[in-house]
Specification:
The complex is a heterodimer of chains A (114) and B (107). Chain A is built from four helices and no strands. Chain A is mostly helical. The longest helix of chain A is centred in the middle third of the chain and has 28 residues. Chain A is elongated and about 55 Å long. In chain B, helix 1 crosses helix 3 and helix 3 packs antiparallel against helix 4. Chain B is elongated. Classes of the chains: A mainly alpha (114), B mainly alpha (107).
Chain lengths: 114, 107
């Protein structure tokens, strides 16, 4: 049996991959937060956080979070009894809104707006 | 029954994380560095409301993430030894992360 890549199976694969990435990200997130134990450590880690590479990753992180969260919301609606015939249009609407939020958020993170 | 509870909890924590993560991004990522200085962050962390939010957010994220990985292990790992080892690794990671998070929230 072969799987065809369609909207549902694409969403399913993206949900798994982003889920794994986001769970692993918790380690990194708490590592950064652990620097809160003294002001000097916090200052040094915040300097790293301001670098362009980290900013770019932060924008990417937002896109992963939005993709996973919006798709998860769609799955929850399906579980709650949303007609399955609607799932594709809900997917593409969520995709469009999510893309706008990710791009806008990325622009904000990049510091374009003062 | 156990699986059904896991499924339900995955949904509940998921909805909470969706709301929480948007809130979190507005506060922590969409602000300039001057708004998240050491003093500001420690000040905010000292509020019991923020502590409560942070602990619920932390627990939800860890449960949701590791319950998800748990499901992937059951689905993909066929060898019993490797599966058992992975499950232990998942549990230990979740506990260590939770303890680290609580330590930070209580600073």
């Amino acid at each position: 049996m072969r799987y065809k890549l369609r909207t549902g199976s694409f969403a399913w694969a993206v949900h798994r991959l982003t889920g794994i990435a986001l769970t692993l990200y918790i380690f990194l997130h708490l590592y950064v937060l652990a620097h809160l134990k003294d002001p000097e450590g916090y200052a040094s880690i915040m300097e790293v956080m301001q670098s362009p590479l980290v900013k770019l990753s932060e924008a990417g992180l937002l896109a992963l979070v939005i993709a996973h969260a919006f798709n998860g919301f769609r799955l929850t609606l399906l579980d709650l009894g949303m007609p399955t015939g609607l799932h594709k249009s809900v997917f593409w609407s969520a995709f469009a809104i999510g893309a706008v939020i990710s791009v806008l958020g990325g622009v904000i993170i990049a510091g374009v707006f003062p | 029954m156990k699986e059904a509870a896991g499924w339900l909890f995955q949904r509940i924590t998921g909805v909470f994380l969706l709301a929480g993560v948007l809130f979190h991004f507005f506060f922590m990522h969409f602000t300039g560095p001057e708004k998240i200085t050491y003093d500001v962050v420690i000040q905010r962390l000292s509020s019991p409301w923020w502590k409560t939010f942070d602990i619920i957010f932390l627990s939800s994220a860890i449960f949701h993430g590791f319950n998800g990985l748990w499901g992937l292990i059951l689905e993909y790992i066929r060898g019993e030894k490797l599966r058992g080892t992975s499950q232990i690794l998942i549990l230990v990671s979740a506990v260590v992360l939770f303890a680290t998070g609580i330590y930070i929230v209580m600073l």
